[in-house]
Amino acid sequence: MSGFAYVVEDGKVESPPLKQALGRRAGLVWIHLTTNDERAKAWLGGEAGLSPYVIEALTAAETRPRCDAVGEGVVINLRGLSSEELETSDLLASIRIYALGGCVFSVTRKALNALHPVRELVEAGKVLDPGDLIAALAQAITEELDPVVADLGDSLDDCEEQIASRHAFELRRMVNRARSQAIGLRRFLTPQRTALEKLAAMPNDWLGDDDRLHLSAAADRAARMAEELESIRERAALVHETLTDLRAEQIDQRSLIIAVVAMVFLPLTFITGLLGMNVAGIPFAHEPWAFWGVFWICAAMAVAIAAYFVRRHWFER
In the Cβ-directed half-sphere of 235, how many Cα atoms lie within 13 Å? Predict the structure, then answer.
């Protein structure tokens, strides 16, 4: 188990050990744990003295963004990008937060990229209370996710442009990847928007008006990204259907060409097979012009059959 702590009071920022930060009275006491083992539960329940419900919320293996009032405090889970490799079905790392008065406990199981800029803000003295801290985390997470969602939309735009140039087969994997990422991100951004809106509306006295405005702005940004991801998912489905139709059309066209070629050579094969039998009585078998006669007859038949198919527009797409 590892972590850090900050104590902010009257613009002064300290970073004491975890044990020394417990019980301090200040504008903000932030205790963060990075763990995925049972020692975190023991520490939170023993030295920190948190309730079993809060401990379970902070250390659960699977979490979705949410916001729940617990007595005078609030439990809020948020999701953001991580520098660690995550499962394909779980593209965002979680941070679980319990805020009570001037104290904030947070736990992550995977590295959360948004923690670094927020720690810089705390160390610079720009975060003074729990409301500032949670608002800063929400803003950092949404600001990092925004270009990722925009890149997904741009990649889908490229796919749609390449469809027009008929580079269809190379796009299937790209479209499937964009669609999978959009579904995975939207899975968390929609409830995250709800959690931020719920937190902004809670009557906690440690949430200032500016904190509520920042949380509402982060919720609006999450809503916009969720709507964009839904649009990307629908567009990806349409592009995938178009690629499937193009592939079926190409297969049909190639099958048609093969069928036409077979139809052209079928009567020729019959004639050559008939004349190639090792039996007596084949007409003109000993004539010097017999080979070229058969050749030109076959060529004329091939041309006639091909002309018939062209006239019937079998070669048109």
Answer: 20
